[in-house]
Amino acid sequence: MFDTLKSDPTAVQMSSYTDIRKAVKPAISPDGELLAFLSDASGTAQVWIKPLAGGEAKQLTNLPEPVGTLSFNPKSRDLLISTDWGGDERHQFWLIENAEGEPRKLTSDATVVHGWGCWSPDGTQIAYSANYRDRTHMDLYVMTVATGETKCVYQGTGWRTPAAFTPDGTALLVNDCTRAMTDQNFCRLDLASGAYEDILPHQGRASYQAAKFLKDGSGILLISDQGRDYSSVMFKAHDSNELVEIAGFEKQDVEALAIAPDQQSVALVLNRQGWNEIVIIDRQGKVQKSLPTPMPFVIASVAWTQDGAALVMPAEGAATSGDIWRCEVATGTYSRLTDAPKAATALPDFIEPTVTSVASFDGLDVPYFVYQPTVAAPASGYPVMIIVHGGPEAQWKPDFRADIQYMLARGIMVIAPNIRGSTGYGRPYQHLDDRELRMDSVADLKAVRLAVGNRADVDDSRIGVFGRSYGGFMVLAALTEYPDLWKLGVEYYGIANFLTLMETTGPWRKVLREVEYGDVAMMKDALERFSPIHKMAEVQAPLMVVHGLEDPRVTPCESEMVYSCLRGLGKPVEILRIAHEGHGFARIENRHTVFDALGRFIDENL
Q1: DSSP string spanning 450-501?
Q2: Hey, which of 106, 127, 492, 503 would disulfide with 468, CB 3.0 to 4.6 Å?
Q3: pLDDT, tens digit, 9 for 90 and up, residues 458-476
Q4: What's in the keyword line of the UniProt record (predicted)?
Q5: Three-state SS for 571?
Q6: How far apart are CA 461 and CA 439, in angstroms?
Q7: Burial letters for 399-434: b for 16+ Cβ neighbours within 10 Å, e otherwise?
Q8: Residue from 101, 179, 110, 172 nearest 143 by CA
């Protein structure tokens, strides 16, 4: 069967790829004995647990909604989790006592967004943000878990998230994102007096992540790009309001850190062109060792085992579906802790990409991934799908994508650019598409398209464009700005009109979006000019539109406008409306519907 599929990949349906499961978000119990993680083996993301030392995994939750967050109480096996309703992002908290039995609700107002924060050091309280008072603003709350007693400890404008309790439990460290999610103040809230102060005053943009108090009381270790183009490991002394760089890496962001139980070593996750690597440094920042991964990995987090002998991480790659892995620090040996059920049908070998780049209209170097089919190119050259990531403050990473591997098996080359505005290439690059510069990123996409079309192994007449969310805007912009370059377009929950986006997006997100896209009052004319909805008559290629009906970020009206306009103009367009889904597709039956339709649309038009 496997050899047959290799010679005839058309025998495999898209659903065989979307059925590939994954395990993500590992958490280790404080006693070091239990591993909890999320797996979609049941069809949605649910909590599974297994002994960390080995043994069978078992499903712990079977809730009607997918689980989003999980976090162990620092003093017990009590496990906090969160769910929303149909992807509406208004998350509620649940508690699973001793990591067994049925979850019980800690919050119950389904109209409110609850943003997870942290446990108190003694495990009796949790801190989180929520918009009870005003749907536009996220205030800070502390709950005593045993009784459910809740207190609003800070009211403010905009978005903020508790990062950590101080070791004595008397104060909170807060990521204050009043300006933007990636442009923060790092604040301290005294829980007794209510005093709220910026403890790292700075000029320019900065972010602060993974703050960890050192046990000797000397200060805080964290990841920040304050005063830098790339994120580094920083130290804030207890009595100082300045950061000292402990470890920085040339043109690489530090994306995660974990301090060893003995406090003498720190594990770091570094970003190199979208792939991740792990290094161990000492307290002074000297690299003690690198831990090369057994295959190209994308790693979202890292944690030490209780004995300090190993690291635990979620890892996946373009050719490796997501699982939880363990690495023995002494030997650098990696092993899987989970083995998420894979597809029932044997599939062709999966493919890793390579990276190249092209000079854009202004000479800027724009990187892009090339996923090359293993089947020989036809005489006319490969058809191509260019996929644009969302965000836009995000980075295309070569993690596992079922739809990409399906296209490769069908002999379709896949290209994935990191156009200007992407993260991972330094602060200046990240902000080159802000506000008035919006259409420069669309010009980058054109440059990538022309470079790919000039390849000898590509059919220049068969190149499509695909994107989700902000990537959906890029699809619509590409089809309207450069309509003669595209054979087809596919956009999932994309932005068609920046003005209606600002009116309809979840109110807690509006200010954050204005920082990126522009204030409606100040930039109305520019936002109208950037909005593809006003240029639908330019579209030439067939377009598929897909949208979850509970999406709070980019509401379904954006897709309905596109569909209605193109239908009215007699253009080839189809729309797929997915009930009980938000900004993505969390249920296996809906993923089947969406991606089977994608496979058919590509077959018919590319």
Answers
A1: HHHHTSTTEEEEEEEEEEETHHHHHHHHHHHHSGGG-SEEEEES--S-HHHH
A2: 492
A3: 999 999 999 999 999 999 9
A4: Hydrolase, Protease, Serine protease
A5: coil
A6: 24
A7: bbbbbbbbbbbbbbbbbbbbbbbbbbbbbebbbbbb
A8: 172
